[in-house]
Amino acid sequence: MKKVKFLIILFFIFGFYDILNAKKENVCIECHLETGEESLMKPVEEWRKSVHSENGISCHHCHGGDPNDEDIAMAPEAGFIGVPEYEEIPEFCGKCHIGVKENYLKSAHGKTLPDGPNCVTCHTAHNQKKAGVYLINKELCSQCHSYERAEKIKFALLSTEKTISSLSKRIDNLWTNGFDAEQMRKMLFATKNSFRRLTHIVEVDYILQRTGDIYSELGKVENEVKEKEEILKNRNIVGAFIVIFLLISALLFDKLRKELIKKT
Amino acid sequence: MDKKMTRRKFLGKLVAGILGGTIALFTAPIAFYLLPKKEKKKLNIFVDPKGNPIPESSIKEGDYELGLSDEGPVIIVRREGVLYAFSAVCTHLGCIVKWIPSRNEFLCPCHAGRFDANGAVISGPPPAPLKRYKIEITSEGFIILS
Amino acid sequence: MNKILKAIDERLKLSELYEKYLSGYMVPGNLNFWYCLGSVLIVIFSIQIITGILLLMYYIPSVDKAFESVMYITNKVPFGWLIRRVHAVGANLFVLVLFFHMFSVLIMGSYKKPREIHWITGCLLFALVLVECLSGYLLPWSQLSYWATTVATNFPGAFPFIGDFLVYVIRGGEKVTQLTLGRFFSIHVSLIPFTIFILIAIHIFVIRRTGISFPPGTDETKVKKIPFFPHFVLEDLKVIYIFLAIMFLIVFFYPQFVLPRDALIPADPLSTPEHIKPEWYFLANYQFLKLIPNEFLGIFLQLIIAVIIFLLPFIDRTPERRIWKRPVFFGIVIFGIIFYVLLTIWGYIS
Predict the structure, then answer these.
(1) Right CATH number for C28-279 from 1.10.3210.10, 2.40.50.40, 3.40.50.10540, 1.20.810.10?
(2) What global pTM score does this model have?
(3) ipTM value of the model?
């Protein structure tokens, strides 16, 4: 009887921990880690730090296969791709990043294929971080060419990038204050998307030419954000008045009470 | 002594004012909360009770269709190919009227009020004719009432 | 106007009631700040009821519509954001002031004879308010609601034999679903508020019967008495307004305290947010359970502590109320509070 009790208790303890640690692992990750082989474990560890992992994009989303069934996990019938050839990488990533792929193929980078730089040259194979202008840096670019032209492009992109990230922060602030941010987020996301596409053209003149359009789009988002921020500001002013009113009232209650006691 | 009295009175009034102000402060938002916002003017589309628009084509010759407009229940009849829309609410006590095709008239089931095909009262207790709507058909075939 | 009032009074003798229960009701003149917390709690309860009724007008208790309807309230209904935040902040303040209220009663020994019923009804009220908070937590059907409820409703599972069944009954099924939302909604808006209301009525009734306790260590025959109205009511009002100021400070400037980011994302049963934790007032219990290796033992120990607190007037029967003459009791209380606060902080940072 005691054993049964113990087992039940044990069951619930583990049941509880399970829920707390409910990170759905799939068979790809399980096997890769079980091998203990550096080259097979590394992709998993790197992916875990990536922006893909953060957003719930897992192995099979890019590599295909079935993450729930060990037997056909790596079967070509289940769409398993494995490691793509170097020249196939743009196609591989372009499954999802369609616009970026399109512009990349048109760019000076894309035209040097199959030997030229492709997605993983700058973004790494598994440890992709949230993209940003920081990716254009001396270390990366001077692997192949001088940094001068790249720097010009970076300069052209920088202010747009700053505007986007500051807008994103402002929208987030409104959201944590209870505003419905979905519409603003979608608008910003769409603009950000066309901006990201643009960056892959790697041609200063074209980027500068298109930046105007992006700015007018961002202006629309900003107007929306400003409107909400104005509401928030007004709320806070009213709130401050209410708090002050309540505190002064408390003081007056105290005064009247003392006055009454003095009398009696 | 006199000074003290007035001071006390003044404080008492101030406190009463504060309490009144607090009540006003608290009830104002509640009043606004309870008043629904007026929605922007939209097209008054003839819809079924679930809110789906009823296409004009679904009303056959000699047939009728009951549905809702922004103002309430509406009955639409097709006679000789033309659609006629009336408020389906009997002007007597608010029951919903029916179309009787055999007699070409509307009948209210509650107190046997009768209206002719133009909505005018034939007999029974209704004090006024049924309200008539103008009809427009959109490109999707939906019915707009006005 | 005056004539009408006089006529009514002549018939109903309202001024008699006023004299008997308000202006003629004498209370000790040396009552301190701690004695006002009961009134603060009544005000908070009223605020919760009023805002609750208002929210109920737009809220839809369905897993598909709940979050949407809450978003509708906060973004579309005029002042909906205010009503909702006041309700959320009010709930937190309710628990906080209850802690203070019970603390003062413990330190001043006011639970002792003849005030055992006060303590018992008070403890029941405390438990009910916690259940009310917990059930209300699920209603917006946000990530926070869903996962906090999933974790919280898992704990009774540690009971031997009936644990499984308990969880099933509380959730209305194996998992947190529409069935859970339905029963939580029902008890949150009807059963518990009504019970709280009745218990408050009993609580106040017994207080009026026994009178307010004198602050310990004062000579009851020498203390000057003051009328409840207007003298003590003004003191009450002062403390009430201070707490209202705190409430609106949070409502306007720190809504994130009560509505963190996970409360703004609709529930997703397939993705657990990181660092999901219970509300601050359950953190100590939560940390306690994490520290005790056997979960049932953890719950059992907490239950024993709860029963001891509940039956305190019958366990501690000495008439001495002055805290400095009760060093052992004082030591236990201080140790208990420090332990509790430390566990809460630990639970918060871990």
Answers:
(1) 1.20.810.10
(2) 0.78
(3) 0.90
